Amino acid sequence: MDYIAVNLPAINFDATCDFYRMLGFQCTYQSNEWMILHRGSLSLEFFHHPALDLKSSWHSACIRVENLAALYQAWQSLNWAAFSQARITDIEHLAKIEIFCVIDINGSLLRCIQQY
Questions:
Q1: Alpha-carbon Rg of the chain, whole angstroms?
Q2: pTM of the model
Q3: Domains (ranges, CATH) in the chain?
Q4: Which among 104, 108, 116 is positioned nearest to 19, based on CA atoms?
Q5: Which of 13, 43, 76, 96 is deepest in the core (most CB within 10 A)?
Q6: For 43-54, what is each residue's pLDDT tens digit?
């Protein structure tokens, strides 16, 4: 099966893995320069970028799911205080799209979108 994987920066692999573990991802590969995480059919890949300024990061990914409300409910109820630089938005109901966003601990934007 062919697919495209998103590549996001990670300042620290251990901290990034801890954050995404909170979201239900599991690390399936890690070297000194690369890390791959999975949550069911969702896959995120990270490259080591210790010099990244998380406040000026412009990296992003779209996560398209069949049940946005369920994903939002699961993630919104987590202990976000454990990762003070991360945040989650409310679901927005736009003209032809439902979306909520997550800013991860590396400053990357995850757009979570209802798949129709």
A1: 14
A2: 0.93
A3: 6-48+59-114 (3.10.180.10)
A4: 104
A5: 13
A6: 999 999 999 998
